Amino acid sequence: MNIEIKNKIIIISSPSGAGKTTLCKMLLKKINNIILSISYTSRSKRLNEVDGKDYYFVSKEKFTKLEKKNYFIESCNNFNNYYGSPIKNIKKANLLNCNILFDIDWKGARKIRKKFKKSDIIDIFILPPTVKELRKRLVKRGRDTKKEIALRLSYALEEIKHYNEYDYVLINQNIHNTLKDIIDIIKYHELIKNNDKLLNKKLKKLINF
Question: Which domains does the chain have, with CATH numbers?
């Protein structure tokens, strides 16, 4: 499957509870030329979640049918629920001439890296300050039972092992400082891109001369 991308694919991953979804929401408010890749999921909608804004909520049967039709760029199964990023999100980003933001785990990130050039991707892994702090955050969310928290923590420890697959690794000690670091990384890549364009223009002038 060959998919062209005009701008950057920004991937933010983290273990559950480390803050990636909050950071993604804050980032979208701070930078205009980014759209979120809204995933499909078979899990139940949580309180305050909106269909089509947070996720597209579908049944497992519907998800499986879409997956068989190669509807997703990447998909995975987490905690017995399916998640997938539709190809249409890339097409939408191209149409709007925007960067596209993926709030996905390391498995999804790995699949995307196989389908796009490294130069098209900015991938960032968010770490919690400590495992103790991560557990505290999971408990504070108030969403899960003790058994579910233990399962999420176990999965998080496995997920953390994959941080070295990312170009950037940030420790989320303070959410506002981490957000600033993410914005600085994106601006750095924009600066490189703009300088490359300027250099290409100069080269074309020299060649034409």
Answer: 9-208 (3.40.50.300)
Q: Assign residue 168 a region (left: φ > 0; alpha: ψ between -120 and 50; beta: otherwise).
A: beta
Q: Which of 95-104, 144-153, 181-190 has the lowest mean pLDDT?
A: 144-153
Count of CA atoms in the C-beta half-sphere (13 A) of 159: 25
Q: Which residues contact 176 (CB under 8 A, 6 or more apart)?
A: none
- What does the block give as tokens for 82? 């399916």
Longest CA pairwise span in the chain (Å): 71
Span 163-172, pLDDT tens digits = 999 999 999 9
Q: What is the pLDDT of residues 47-65, one digit of tens each?
A: 889 999 999 999 999 999 9
Mean pLDDT confidence for 29-47 = 93
Helix (H, G, I), strand (E, B) or coil at 104: coil
CA 187 to chain centre: 17
